[in-house]
UniProtKB/TrEMBL annotation:
Name this protein carries in UniProt: Glutathione S-transferase 3, mitochondrial
TM region(s), chain numbering: 66-83, 128-156, 176-198
Record's catalysed reaction(s): leukotriene C4 = leukotriene A4 + glutathione; 15-deoxy-Delta(12,14)-prostaglandin J2 + glutathione = 15-deoxy-Delta(12,14)-prostaglandin J2-S-(R)-glutathione
Coiled coil segments of this chain: none
Compartments where located: Mitochondrion outer membrane
Any Pfam family: MAPEG
One of the GO BP terms on file: leukotriene metabolic process
GO molecular function, one term: glutathione peroxidase activity
Keywords: Lipid metabolism, Lipoprotein, Lyase, Membrane, Mitochondrion, Mitochondrion outer membrane, Oxidoreductase, Palmitate, Transferase, Transmembrane, Transmembrane helix
One annotated Gene Ontology cellular component of this protein: nuclear envelope
Length: 200
């Protein structure tokens, strides 16, 4: 769609713009209506308008179910927040001061208990970036599959952490040991997505 002669808002008067703007159809975009748009005279407002319109185009290309992927990532944020709080409480309880990542026997007699809590959170952080990338990318093509795997991974990570926090490292394994399978599933989905793009 091509629009000629948009209008620029300057004070209380409208003046024509003698430019040609080409953009794709955006039926719900707040910046375009009947091939005319208004922008303020701030020197960067036209850049903001262009970026927002481009974002609107991208959002329209996403499958509706991609919203579930986003919500799953938000859920993992709250899980990570929960683990952070538990580590913070353990630091106060066992008097393990920053910047020490782990406690020693000289720090507290309950050093093993603290280290299990800390390690349960640290292990989750080690695979967090991989999980996020696999969810964001794979979800573009297979949002429901990635959502299922992501929810499973989040739930399993919770049990991994709580099991580890018991003070017995083996407590993480009965349920938490399956988190690798969830990640493997996401890896397979992304491989399939990549192959499908190459073959098109």
């Amino acid at each position: 769609m091509e629009c000629l002669g948009g209008e620029l808002l300057t004070g209380e008067h409208l003046q024509p713009i003698k430019t040609t703007t080409t953009f794709q159809q955006l039926p719900k975009s707040p910046y375009y209506k009947n091939c005319s748009f208004f922008i303020k005279t701030h020197p960067y407002h036209h850049i903001t308008a262009n970026l927002t319109s481009q974002m609107a185009e991208i959002v329209q290309l996403l499958p509706k179910e991609y919203g579930y992927v986003i919500l799953t990532l938000v859920a993992y944020y709250f899980l990570n927040l929960y683990m952070q709080i538990q580590v913070g409480r353990a630091r106060k309880k066992y008097n393990v001061l920053y910047p020490a990542l782990y406690a020693t026997e000289a720090d507290t007699k309950d050093y093993k208990q603290f280290n299990c809590i800390q390690r349960g959170h640290q292990n989750s952080l080690e695979s967090l970036s991989l999980f996020l990338v696999l969810m964001v990318v794979g979800g573009l093509k297979y949002p429901l599959i990635c959502t299922g795997l992501g929810v499973g991974y989040t739930v399993i990570r919770y049990f991994y952490f709580t099991g580890y926090s018991s003070g017995d490292p083996k407590g993480r394994l009965p349920i938490g040991g399956f988190n690798a399978l969830m990640l493997l599933g996401l890896v397979i989905v992304n491989i399939w997505f990549g192959v499908s793009l190459v073959r098109t």
